[in-house]
Amino acid sequence: MQKNHINGNWLDAINEGIWAVVNPATEEVIASVPFGGTADVQVAIDAAAAAFPAWKGTNAWQRAEVLKKVADLMRVRSKELAQITISEAGKPMPEAVGEWVVAAQFFEWYAEEAKRNYGRTIPASRNNKRMSVISQPIGVVGIITAWNFPVWNLCRVWAAALAAGCTIVAKPSEYTPLTAMALMELLIEAGMPAGVANLVLGNAAEIGEALLSRPEVRKIHFVGSTRVGKILLEGASRTNTKLSLELGGNAPCLIFPDVNLEAVAHSAAIAKSRNCGQVCVSPQRFLVHQDIYAAFVDRISFHLSQLKIGHGDDSNTQIGPLINARQRDQVEQMVQNSIRQGARLSTGGHRPTQFSKGFFYTPTVLSDVSPDYDIFRKEVFGPVLGVTPFSSTDEAIALANDTEYGLASYLWTNDLRTSIKVSEALEFGIVGINEWAAHATEAPFGGWKQSGLGYECGEEGLHEYLEKKLISTGDL
Ligand code: ADP
After folding, report:
1. pLDDT at 1 over 90
2. Is residue 215 part of a domain?
3. Does residue 445 fall inside a structural domain?
4. Residue 224 has pLDDT above 90, yes or no
5. Are residues 255 and 138 in the same domain?
6. Is the separation of the CB atoms in 204 and 25 below 8 Å?
7. pLDDT in tens, 165-209
8. 334 shares its domain with 265
9. 337 vs 438: CA distance, rounded Å
10. Full residue range of the structural domain in which residue 372 is found
């Protein structure tokens, strides 16, 4: 059903607003969805607040039954669900199916993890006193998410918050609402009670403001740009709403001279192509030892130039379009600025000529990048990477940390000392050593510095939706 979902009902926007959903590969309008605002989100918050006591009152085993049914449905239907995601996000079929399959893991894993929400007892410093600590669901959670992972961005948070016993009001990106609606249908089929999970589309600023200003909303989780993250932080400074923020990244990739250069260049090209580079942990700033620098630029340029660009539902496609014209134009602008600043274009740098429609951009390598160029300083969120040479390990570490971002970083070496020294010196929430997929359902995912606040995934992800309570008994 392509509507808002509030208190168990599929609804149009109260103001009758409509948003046209566009396929980024064809630029065709594929659906019209409700586009409301303050009035709709207020009703959704009422519903989530009313549903909270009963959902909180279920035990973790009961909640797990519903969540694991959601996971089962996702696995059985991953291919048809992936078609919905491809139609609005453009990503290649294996990536879209993969998103739904991993989303099933989020639901299954948090269904189980919530059963291990153990408390603790604390030995007191006085004999007539006993203390214990329990964790309880925080309350209604507002969840605002971006379009780049239409399934994951939602499920990482929905699964954890619902497993913890919270009720939710979710606002997905206006660019990928159909995936969110499909997810909501699965929750309903699995038996989620009315009002526990609510979905509202509409004016983002209004919805953000309403979520901030209602005291029943105890926490907002946001996935998106650092710009909007700061708007929410400013708002929260007025209302004291707790926040977790999953913001941008600008991942450094340190390549030392002892690696298998061909294998690293090939795997790096595939990692960069994932979701057309629209990934907050996408490898972006390649820092390559001077002894292998020229060869690395050559090989990664070759591998990126070989990727098959196309529509997500074409089985040959390895890289799809960007999400919209604005995103494509930003990427194009950043490439042009960096070239003006002195970067060398080693491959790509233009729109592919074989498509008359769609927001496509060719995979691009910029070499001879200095730290003051745009491609080094700003998050590109597209199929573009920059390469910069280094001559010593200390220089590589300094270059890697020379950013306001602190989400993912990557390091390729076979030298034990280098891997330990560098991984401990990097100022990032995630360090991947000899791998490009340094994240997992069961491990914490979060950014340092301007990249965020708090964590998703792992046990940390569950505790974002639990409050600690000290229960202290005296006069014994
Ligand atoms: P992008 O530009 O990549 O879409 P955004 O950070 O703008 O990233 O969007 C992420 C999410 O934040 C989307 O759901 C969007 O609608 C929402 N959003 C945009 N502006 C605001 C705002 N002022 N307050 C709250 N949410 C917002």
Report:
1. no
2. yes
3. no
4. yes
5. no
6. no
7. 999 999 999 999 999 999 999 999 999 999 999 999 999 999 999
8. yes
9. 31
10. 251-440
Q: What is the pLDDT of residues 30-78, one digit of tens each?
A: 999 999 999 999 999 999 999 999 999 999 999 999 999 999 999 999 9
pLDDT 10s digits, 152-166:
999 999 999 999 999
State the closest ligand 1 atom to the C-alpha of 381, by its place in the atom list counted from 1: 3
Which atom of ligand 1 approaches the CA of 208 most closely? 25
Q: Burial of 321 by CB count in 10 Å (0-12 exposed, 13-18 middle, 19+ buried)?
A: buried
Q: How far away, in angstroms, is 325 Cα from ligand 1 center?
A: 16
C-alpha of 270 from chain center:
19
Q: Are 215 and 308 members of one domain?
A: no
Cα 173 to ligand 1 centre (Å): 7
Do the domain assignments include residue 110? yes
Ligand 1 centroid to residue 166 C-alpha, Å: 23
Residue 208 C-alpha to ligand 1 middle, in angstroms?
A: 9
CATH code of the domain containing 324: 3.40.309.10
- Which of 144, 282, 378 most suits a substitution to test ligand 1, by most atoms within 8 Å of the C-beta? 144
Same domain? 435 vs 460: no
> What is the count of structural domains for the chain?
2
Q: In the structure, which protein residues have their CB atom closer than 6 angstroms to any atom of ligand 1?
A: 144-147, 171, 173-174, 204-205, 208, 224-225, 228, 231
Contact 381, 330 (CB under 8 A): yes
> Do 186 and 73 form a contact (C-beta atoms < 8 A)?
yes
Residues 242 and 301 in one domain: no
DSSP 8-state assignment for residue 275: G
